[in-house]
Amino acid sequence: MIKKEQIKKLTAIAFTSAFLLSSQQVLSKPPKLLKKITKPAPSIKKADKDSVPFNFGILKSRFSSWGVDPDNKKSSINIVPLWKKFKAKKKIVVAVVDTGIDPHHPFLNKNLHVKEGKSSKSNYGIDFSAKRSNKFKPMDQHGHGTHVSGIIKSVFPEAKILTLKYYNPQASGQENLNSTIEALRYAVEQNVDVINYSGGGPEPALEELRILKQAERKGILVVAAAGNEESNIDIKSNAYYPASYGLKNIISVTAHDQNLRLLSSSNYGKRSVDISAPGHRIRSALPNSRSGYLTGTSQATAFVTGVAALLKSHFPSLDTKEIKEILKESAKKEIPLLTKCASGGRLDAGKAFELADKYIKAKSLNRSLANKNKKGKVIYRLSN
Fold first, then answer.
1. From CA 112, how far away is CA 120, in angstroms rounded?
2. Among the options 231, 298, 313, 330, which is catalytic?
3. For the chain, which residues make up each domain, given as ranges?
4. Judging by beta carbons within 10 Å of its beta carbon (0-12, 13-18, 19+), is residue 75 exposed, middle or buried?
5. Which one, of 307, 294, 301, 309, lies nearest residue 147 by Cα?
6. CB-based contact 276:255 (threshold 8 Å)
7. In CA terms, which of 161, 198, 220, 278 is 20 to 30 Å from 378?
């Protein structure tokens, strides 16, 4: 039963309020902001090209940002070392619970995932929003969902994106909240690998919590925005949900700029927030084949989702708790972030891969030693 006060959760634009520049603001900017931006691809040696599974040009495309730019040694997520060693061992499905997607976008149209058959113009996700016109056509008329999906693609080019639309600007807060819960339930029922949830609000919802606990039991990772209320969400009165639920499968994300400073708008918390990621003026895809800039913890969340998905693909034996701890432990410590999140630092994809690799090898060695030193038949049991 959802209490009346929980309706506050999705009033106005209820997906995290998670950006300084709303999609409407970006889309209303003069053409100069949204013009095509082309830069030469980074200089990569032939040996490196042959060993990398993805096209380096993606990192410099007009749909990508400083967050993945290989020339940005100061504040990018350090994606190149991960890409050089990455091998896909499992297809990863990322559910993006947001405002929908532009299925025709040249940067995203090959990443769409559907439950049955192939994606098409009439089947490219699920629309749970109130007053929807077609359940299987979650068209993004806002821009936020397409932008978030583009960031995930820029980090993990082969990620399969399950678009789950919940937001309708004409719907009431209660209707948007109900749609969010339906979308989350569907994602959990589909056993997706990662849920990107760039949304939230100040009130908890019992049914939302129940579904996210089910995701925890199933081993589904949930990456959630910390929000943009300029607040310390360690303080109970400032809590922001779902980031503040404190579940073991939820990674809560705050945002920093190119100078490694926490965004003034971002929520933070030494206990409640796990890690920081790029969030200021992030360039990504926008509807109608465009690119543009958005700012906030929504954008930061998508970077963490992309790296988590890469780790799950290369190291399928890692569980959600292990991935969460690896991302936190490998975070690059920065003085401005030390008291703002549990990791005290920012997302470092290269270090995360390195730590995950060491962890897997150590676990394998321990298992081998245990088997060698144990006589007779070894019986493995799953812990409760």
1. 9
2. 298
3. 4-373
4. buried
5. 294
6. yes
7. 220
Annotated catalytic residue within 69, 98, 193, 257: 98
Whether the pLDDT of residue 40 is over 50: the answer is no
Backbone torsions φ then ψ of 60, nearest 5 degrees: -115, 10
Spatial separation of the C-alpha atoms in residues 250 and 193, rounded to whole Å: 13
What does the CA dihedral 55, 56, 57, 60 come to, rounded to 10 degrees? 150
Distances (CA, A) of 373 to 220, 365, 366, 370: 34, 12, 11, 5
Contact 88, 314 (CB under 8 A): yes
The kind and range of the H/E element at 312 are helix 297-314
Residue 298 annotated as catalytic:
yes
Residue 303 CA to residue 276 CA, distance in Å, equals 10
**Non-local CB neighbours of 207 within 8 Å, separated by 6+ positions:** 2, 181
Instruction: Verify whether residue 276 is a known catalytic residue.
Output: no
Question: 194: which 2 tokens?
Answer: 């990662």
Count of positions (residues) in the chain: 384
The reported pTM is 0.85
Q: Using 50, 70 and 90 to split pLDDT, how confident is the model at 199?
A: confident
Average pLDDT score over residue span 256-274 = 98
Catalytic residue flag (residue 98):
yes
What is residue 198's three-state secondary structure?
Answer: coil
Domain 4-373 has CATH 3.40.50.200: yes
